[in-house]
Amino acid sequence: MSTRGVETDEQQRIRFQVELEFVQCFANPNYLHFLAQRGYFKDPAFVNYIKYLQYWKEPAYAKYLKYPMCLHFLDLLQYEHFRKEIVNGQCARFIDDQQILHWQHYTRKRVKLLQSQAEKHLMTIQNEPTPQKSV
Amino acid sequence: MTSQKSTREVLLTCIDDIEIIAKELLDNLIAQKQQKPVSAEHSQLVELVLQKDTELKATLKLAEEQGVLQQKVVALETEVERHDIEIRNLQKQLKEAEQLLATAIFQAKQKLQAIAKANSRPVNSEELIKFAHRISASNAVCAPLNWQQGDLRRPYPTDIEMRLGFLGRLGEMNVNGHMSFPELLHRPNHSMQQGSSVPNSQAGTYSWLSQNDLQMPGLSVSHLGVGGGMDHKTPKKENEDVDVMSTDSSSSSSSDSQ
Predict the structure, then answer these.
(1) Is the CB of A49 less than 8 angstroms away from the CB of B240?
(2) Fewer Cβ close by (within 10 Å): the C or N end of chain A?
(3) Rounded distance, CA B75 to CA B112, Å?
(4) Is A50:A74 a contact under the CB 8 Å cutoff?
(5) Which UniProt keywords apply (chain A) (predicted)?
(6) Cβ burial, residue A86 (10 Å; 0-12/13-18/19+)
(7) Would residue B138 count as lying in a domain?
(8) Domains of chain A by start residue, with CATH
(9) Which residues of A touch B158 (CB under 8 A)?
(10) Is residue B191 domain-resident?
(11) Measuring CA to CA, which residue among A61, A60, A72, A58 is closest to residue A29?
């Protein structure tokens, strides 16, 4: 892997897996915070690498991603301002909280839907015996 | 028109004049009984009265004609009003029609744009379903229904998962000595068969890369045919990123970031 020039098939395979995992690690704000604290975002080579990783946004590559949130963070990481901000622990925690809340969005919607349906069902059950009761 | 007097005024002045002349006449007649007769003045007055009378009659006739014309005018005005109402209604309807058509055209244009957009980047429906399954089945985009505070599952790869993935073990590999790719593939298989002590995290390993990628290297190579085109761009970066990877994984394995 240290030789320059044409990569072998195996090297390409390894690089694919490595980059696939690495780009998905960006979905973890704590990991980004960790990288920022160790000064990786100040290295121009690393910044170039992040820019290069944007190829994962293309559909041919994106279909291998399991954690698509990483693409959003990949976009954010292109901005120097974000790279500087994420050194701050509070920032990382805030992003984490918001991410988890957003993650629960569909779950909340589904729960609400189920609840409203259950309520409707209860109402219909309650309304049925009233004609039989003597008022 | 403003310099002429209206017929009503003419009539009224006429009547006033006759009244005055009549008064004069009567005064004269009364005076005649008491004094000498003034017949010249008297006849003048009578003539004046007669003249005023004809004037009055003429003005009355004029007033009658004007009345007839006025009726015609009123009739025409109502007709004009009616037409006016009809035109306004028509205008309102045209405006509504224009609005409806504009909305319809706008929506049709949007639909055409959507069609063009969809046609420009067609996606195989099967691939779409595969992708949707991949991101949803592992709860990567939607929280599991029984998720509570304190549950360790997250929408991103956690610390443990990262260490147990290919990247994490690559770091160990570099530290422990050179291992070939097929060995690395077979190693997790072997430990799976023995039954590992951390079943969840091992399951995490497999969910990390899809089973397809591990068991069908042929498939990933064919897709790398696309990635091969990127090759010429990045030999330099690859050197640098290898350095980054090795330092990264070694430091991640020794740190407690969470």
Answers:
(1) yes
(2) C
(3) 55
(4) yes
(5) Activator, Nucleus, Transcription, Transcription regulation
(6) buried
(7) yes
(8) 9-124 (1.10.10.1340)
(9) 28
(10) no
(11) A72
Q: pTM for the full model? A: 0.51
Whether B202 contacts chain A with CB within 8 A? no
Write out the two tokens for A113.
């839907």
Does B135 share its domain with B106? Answer: no
ipTM of the complex: 0.75
pLDDT recorded at residue B105: 97
Q: Does B155 touch chain A (CB under 8 A)?
A: yes
Task: Mark yes or no for CB contact B157/A25 under 8 Å.
Answer: yes
Q: Is residue B74 part of a domain?
A: yes
Q: For B155, which of A22, A34, A103 is closest by C-beta distance?
A: A103
Q: What averages of pLDDT result for each successive group of 10 residues across chain B (258 residues)? A: 76 89 86 72 84 89 92 97 97 98 97 93 88 88 83 86 86 64 48 37 40 38 35 38 39 40
Measure Cα distances from B18 to B8, B50, B111, B137, B198 in Å: 15, 9, 87, 114, 131
Taking the CA atoms of residue A48, residue A54, residue A60 and residue A63 in that order, the dihedral angle to the nearest 10 degrees is 120
Any domain includes B11 = yes
What's the token pair of residue B214?
A: 């591990």
Structural domains in chain B (count): 2
Under DSSP, the state recorded for A42 is: G
Among A12, A30, A103, select the one facing B224 at the smallest CB separation.
A12
Residues B21 and B113 in one domain: yes
